[in-house]
Amino acid sequence: MEKIYSNYQEQTEFNKVCPKTINFLLSYSQALFEFEYEDLSFETFLN
């Protein structure tokens, strides 16, 4: 497992992410609201 993981890390390249993308993801995560009622789970957006 250790060898597979280290090989995978060497193959993966991380490019710089545009600040617009980061802002979009942060806004999306802040607008998402999840709640549970009894056995049901609900997701909604707070816009």
- Secondary-structure element string: HHEE
Please give the domain count. Answer: 1
Detail the poorly predicted runs.
none
* First-residue to last-residue Cα separation: 44 Å
Helix/strand-derived category reads alpha+beta
What is the average per-residue confidence, as pLDDT, rounded to a whole number?
A: 76
Shape: elongated
Describe the strand arrangement of the main beta sheet, using strand numbers: 1-2
Largest sheet: number of strands, sense, barrel closure:
2 strands, antiparallel
Rg, rounded, reads: 18 Å
The beta-strand count equals 2
Give me the number of helical elements. 2
Strand content: 25-35%
Helix content: 40-55%
Folded structure, characterized:
By secondary structure, the chain is an alpha+beta fold. It has one domain. Helix content is 49%, strand content 26%. The protein has a two-stranded antiparallel sheet. β1 and β2 form a beta hairpin. It starts with a helix and ends with a strand. The mean pLDDT is 76.
In short:
The chain contains 2 helices and 2 strands, in the order ααββ.
Keywords for this entry:
47 residues; two-stranded antiparallel sheet; single chain; alpha+beta; 2 helices
Write the layout of secondary structure elements.
Elements: H1 2-11, H2 19-31, E1 32-37, E2 40-45
Antiparallel strand pairs: 1-2
